[in-house]
Amino acid sequence: MTKGAPSAEELDLNEHQWYLNRELTWLEFNRRVLHEAEDERTPLLERLKFLAIVGANSDEFVMKRIGGLKQQIGAGLNELTLDGRSPRQQVTECYAEIKEIHLREREIFAKLRALLEPKGIVIESYPDLTPKEKKALRDYYYVNIFPLVTPQSIDPAHPFPFISNLSLNLLVSLRYPKAREVSLARVKVPVGLGTPRFLRVGKGDRFVPLEEVMMHNLDMLFPGMHIVTCEIFRVTRNANTEKDEEEADDLMAMIESELKERKFAPIVRLEVAAGMEYLHRGRLAAELELDNENDVFEVPGMLAMRDLFELARLDYPRLHEPPHHPIDHPELLTTRNIFHTIRDAGAILLQHPYVSFSTSVERFLREAATDPKVRAIKMTLYRTSSQSRIIESLILAAQNGKQVAVVVELKARFDEATNIRLAERMEEAGIHVTYGVVGLKTHCKVILVVRQDYRGIRRYVHIGTGNYHAETARIYSDVGILTSDETVGQDVTELFNYLTTGFMAKRKYQCLVTAPRFLKKALLEKIEREIALQQQGGGGVIRFKMNALEDGDIVKALYRASIAGVRVRLYVRDTCRLRPGIPKLSENISVVSVVGRFLEHARIYYFRNGGDEEYFISSADAMKRNLEARVEILCPVAAPELRAELAGIFEAHDADRRSAWDMLPDGSYRQRVPAEGESAEGTHQILIGQAEKRLKESLKQKKKVK
């Protein structure tokens, strides 16, 4: 904590007290997501969705972050973080936070169940069903699910079975009717691949969890046996299984090997339903090589809350947000060739999901695939959907004789298997597929189209902050730019030459700034320039919008800027190591986090620069891994009308009195509340309104011209 208000001269920016912990601040973000499930202003099924998101977030956090910390502990690493915590301390504190979040989750779920009942959506307990309903459900289970179930004995003759990651499992203790000896068996609940977690009762929207149906019909699996107990458990495995790709002969084979290893990766968490017998809990912990006191979570109520997505998708329009339909970008409201439109406009800014991904980015690629004047297409692919129109367009382009090159990031976590399949499919179609630079993830989002225009070859480029994924483009808030700027085109050509060869020497960029070599250095230099300009004449302003602020050097530089008097406004979705509002240190810094209908994902960097303002969009967050171990880009936005749109995004965050949270000096957050007479619209509703207004003004202008 702060030891009073230090003078600027007394400050030591290396002191642990000035920095927050990366993991704990992320868990604080998950609490803000959980608040959306609690907030009565959020429609009921949307609240259930947020509860599912919290569950999925928690699972991923344990797999990635706790898994990584446990690897550090296992390797004997005791290096302290910027905030002064050891790996073991972090695990202990994170577990305490996770347990609190679990408890609150269950309390909110109980409230939501009660609120959904009068609406006709009921989650029943199997014992409460009528005999007729039980029989119907038993018959359905016997025909449709029972063949998928495989019981496994746990005894000296049978080794402890493999427990798959995030699976629901029944631990059954049973005996022969006249015997005293009790045996154990494990039964996996076969959720997924078409088997729902919640089985419908009758014709309405009443549901019973699958595990309850199984628990009350164990006589099918164990005929003639006496069931002593049936208890539920679930495991979470470490997702960190990365190998050294520099020593791998075949990157594809290495990634496939990693996926197999992740399946069998060490277990980092065991969740058990409340009331499990202590002996059974201890037996599971021992078999799974876990600490019974610290690694076992006793969960009251339902496990695997992420499965609530099934119910959150029920078709009750009044229990959801009003449907949002992305508009077509005003510049693209024409059947005219998209390349002519981009050439005449110079540059077009895309704000997703307010502007349609289909009629902008997908159209850009679709027309490139069929335009006879297009010679080549190059793009990076970090995440996309398996049924992607993007892939279809690339394959069509190759079939039409165009040169197509795609840099696929095989190590995009949790999308590795999808990306391997897509890479193989593209290679079969004749597309030149490469996997980026050894030792670096390719995280930048770029498409380059080379076209024979009337004056010779011209390059058309898309640069974005989000993935080329049509589904997430409807729920992630991102920005992108379509441009035919020659300098940008030349730089992107250099970027692809680097990505496909790995050769870095003497590669110069005129306007783009790339990581890992230049981006971090450029941000630090621009912060120092803002400090110098502030000292010369005042008026220094920095605005950063990103998902996470974790890099210690960037945080220190922003502290120095604040000490110098530069006004720093940070819009950070989740992890933030910086502590705002500390006298003498960060009193000129504010941090706001927006959690609402869409997932904030755009990265925008702004420097006032003595009045000669600079705006950039980027694929990179201010995180050490992004700036030092990934291929990222920072792209300037020069056109005044596009800068005004980016400024509008900042203004929407500032005006938000619904979904914005202000960070306090201790790292906690306070949600904004509208004062009397103030708008209660959140950032996303404001941006929907801005997009619709731009469209109306454009249509009005076109009518005047006619």
From TrEMBL:
<comment type="similarity">
    <text>Belongs to the polyphosphate kinase 1 (PPK1) family.</text>
</comment>
<dbReference type="GO" id="GO:0009358">
    <property type="term" value="C:polyphosphate kinase complex"/>
</dbReference>
<dbReference type="Pfam" id="PF13089">
    <property type="entry name" value="PP_kinase_N"/>
</dbReference>
<keyword id="KW-0418">Kinase</keyword>
<feature type="binding site">
    <location>
        <position position="57"/>
    </location>
    <ligand>
        <name>ATP</name>
    </ligand>
</feature>
<dbReference type="InterPro" id="IPR025200">
    <property type="entry name" value="PPK_C_dom2"/>
</dbReference>
<keyword id="KW-0479">Metal-binding</keyword>
<keyword id="KW-0460">Magnesium</keyword>
<comment type="function">
    <text>Catalyzes the reversible transfer of the terminal phosphate of ATP to form a long-chain polyphosphate (polyP).</text>
</comment>
<keyword id="KW-0067">ATP-binding</keyword>
<dbReference type="Pfam" id="PF13090">
    <property type="entry name" value="PP_kinase_C"/>
</dbReference>
<feature type="binding site">
    <location>
        <position position="476"/>
    </location>
    <ligand>
        <name>ATP</name>
    </ligand>
</feature>
<dbReference type="Pfam" id="PF02503">
    <property type="entry name" value="PP_kinase"/>
</dbReference>
<dbReference type="Pfam" id="PF17941">
    <property type="entry name" value="PP_kinase_C_1"/>
</dbReference>
<protein>
    <recommendedName>
        <fullName>Polyphosphate kinase</fullName>
        <ecNumber>2.7.4.1</ecNumber>
    </recommendedName>
</protein>
<dbReference type="InterPro" id="IPR024953">
    <property type="entry name" value="PP_kinase_middle"/>
</dbReference>
<feature type="active site" description="Phosphohistidine intermediate">
    <location>
        <position position="443"/>
    </location>
</feature>
<feature type="domain" description="Polyphosphate kinase N-terminal">
    <location>
        <begin position="19"/>
        <end position="123"/>
    </location>
</feature>
<keyword id="KW-0597">Phosphoprotein</keyword>
<dbReference type="InterPro" id="IPR003414">
    <property type="entry name" value="PP_kinase"/>
</dbReference>
<dbReference type="InterPro" id="IPR036830">
    <property type="entry name" value="PP_kinase_middle_dom_sf"/>
</dbReference>
<feature type="domain" description="Polyphosphate kinase C-terminal">
    <location>
        <begin position="512"/>
        <end position="674"/>
    </location>
</feature>
<dbReference type="InterPro" id="IPR025198">
    <property type="entry name" value="PPK_N_dom"/>
</dbReference>
<dbReference type="GO" id="GO:0046872">
    <property type="term" value="F:metal ion binding"/>
</dbReference>
<feature type="domain" description="Polyphosphate kinase middle">
    <location>
        <begin position="133"/>
        <end position="311"/>
    </location>
</feature>
<feature type="binding site">
    <location>
        <position position="601"/>
    </location>
    <ligand>
        <name>ATP</name>
    </ligand>
</feature>
<dbReference type="InterPro" id="IPR041108">
    <property type="entry name" value="PP_kinase_C_1"/>
</dbReference>
<dbReference type="GO" id="GO:0005524">
    <property type="term" value="F:ATP binding"/>
</dbReference>
<feature type="binding site">
    <location>
        <position position="413"/>
    </location>
    <ligand>
        <name>Mg(2+)</name>
    </ligand>
</feature>
<keyword id="KW-0808">Transferase</keyword>
<keyword id="KW-0547">Nucleotide-binding</keyword>
<dbReference type="InterPro" id="IPR036832">
    <property type="entry name" value="PPK_N_dom_sf"/>
</dbReference>
<dbReference type="GO" id="GO:0006799">
    <property type="term" value="P:polyphosphate biosynthetic process"/>
</dbReference>
<feature type="binding site">
    <location>
        <position position="383"/>
    </location>
    <ligand>
        <name>Mg(2+)</name>
    </ligand>
</feature>
<feature type="domain" description="Polyphosphate kinase C-terminal">
    <location>
        <begin position="337"/>
        <end position="501"/>
    </location>
</feature>
<feature type="binding site">
    <location>
        <position position="573"/>
    </location>
    <ligand>
        <name>ATP</name>
    </ligand>
</feature>
<dbReference type="GO" id="GO:0008976">
    <property type="term" value="F:polyphosphate kinase activity"/>
</dbReference>
